[in-house]
Amino acid sequence: MFLELRKKFLDFWKSKGSVAVKSSSLIPDDPSVLLTTAGMQQFKKYYTGELNADSDFGSNRTASIQKCFRTSDIEEVGDDTHLTFFEMLGNFSFGPVKNDSPDSIKEKGGYFKRASIVWAYEFLTDILEIAPERISVTIFKGDKEIPKDSESYAIWYSEIGIPENKIKEGSKEDNFWGPTGAEGPCGPTTEIYVDGVEVWNIVFNEFYKTPTNADDAQNDAEENGRRKSALGPRNSAYVKLKNPGIDTGMGFERLLSVIEGEKNVFESSAFKPIISKIKELAPNSSYRDVRLLADHIRASIFLISDGILPSNKEAGYILRRLLRRIIATEIKDDIHSDIFVGVYPEIKKLFENIYPEIKNEKDIVGTWLEEKEKFQGTITKGLREIQKYEKITGADAFYIYESFGLPFELIKELAPKNSVKELDYKDFESEFKKHQEISRAGVQKKFGGHGLVLDTGELKAGSSEEMQKVVRMHTATHLLHWALRSVLGESVHQMGSDINPERLRFDFNFDRKLAPEELSKIESMVNEEIKKNLPVYFEEMSKEKAVKIGALAFFKEKYPDKVKVYFIGDQDHPLSKEFCAGPHVNWTQEIGKIKILKEESVGKGIRRIKATVI
Length: 614
Hints:
Elements: H1 2-14, E1 19-21, H2 44-48, H3 53-57, E2 61-69, E3 85-93, H4 113-127, E4 135-140, H5 150-160, E5 167-170, H6 172-175, E6 176-177, E7 184-194, E8 197-209, H7 214-223, H8 225-229, E9 238-251, H9 252-259, H10 272-281, H11 287-305, H12 314-332, H13 339-351, H14 361-386, H15 394-404, H16 408-414, H17 425-447, E10 454-455, E11 460-461, H18 464-488, E12 494-499, E13 504-509, H19 516-531, E14 536-542, H20 543-548, E15 562-568, E16 576-579, E17 594-603, E18 606-613
């Protein structure tokens, strides 16, 4: 059914006048996300009217099977339903809607609620032969901004004949999609369930959510007249689109398990040969570990095949995390064969005729082997240390992290089960807080603690509470410096800094005003790294060595022969490394979130950013 389902889906939508469009890359043409998370992402500009589907595809109707990647539930991978990489079946309509009848197959225009619901039901019951009594649905119940989707209710109940007790009404949280970000196409949804499992989500893109800030709305209209022309009358934050559209998503693996009668996605034909091979190579692995390996190896292969390489930022960091969890599991479960190399041929065999890019064995396996070689040394040293403990406490786990760079999740993965039976993340986190308090106490003692807790010229605080915020902002300046250099070029350097409990001020050399999209990208990059909860640590070394490893220095400062260098990120390839005396947070998530308030000139060739943390 693995190949048959794909053909049935695309053939069905071709019969309804749709054009089959190939999956786009996992690297999206969309700055709001790190990876492609939904089938509609490659079509966003067709909904706003910025691009014309009829010109590009020969139809305002398309269908696709899209490669997708989501990390929100990465810690749950290994249970019955969660995956990082998956495929999304989708059908799309971009309007204008000339005829919404299910008989409008030959129309060149789009379709809307009636046709999309009737056709979805037809595909499930006639093509896939799913019994009608197994099906239930949900619709949007409405709220003070958007009315109830009575039209969808009437189609399901009066036209199709779904019993009233099988039509549930959901809130905006459950039955309203979008936008992705602060603005964009959005609308109510109807969800289709088979045996209580959601298989299909149909989004009726009939609104455009405008920015809540009036100035942002005005700026957007000035910058993009085509988008403005796609909107109807404005009477609220939700503006009616002149040409409503359809955007649907149906998880391929989940649908496959439902129609094959399997209990979970890992028992479907999308995974069976992969799971079988892993069990052969890893006979001592638990079923949860087998599932984790199946997901992570498959996901890594697709990320690498689309040109993503392991790194400490953005999509590369996600790949590195997957590969290192594979390595950790390989060591923990005493797997003697190279699990990635052994499983790759099975995944290649399944997908090579669908996604030819995964046939690039040299790059895919080569990337794995290089990352494995880099990380195995750290893992091996940490593993030796872990084996010494009969019982690992939160304090022990913190010591192992500090000394060997192994994060909590890998300590749990690598340590003997009996030694971590009582190890809880709260205990580990508590040790971080103790360490932080000791660090703060040391700072207070160093800088004087009677009323003025901290005043070093660059950092100013008048209480321990204020000092905590100042320390968060101080660490944020390191990430801000990194992001500025990433976006504007490595010739950018810090020219000055001042931090108080209300804001941080960061001066840097640059010869022009930054564009709004540049500031937005810089802010987003910093916040993405903060969310990854990267470690922050320092090493004392000679000034000569610090310069040699590429640590950044403040150009006006005179440094002693022995200096502290603060690092953010993985020890092998840190994101940021700077000469600095501290103080700093221990993990980036302690920063919270950075918000850029203003960017301005303070002299010829010198710019200033003011920001805060929230």
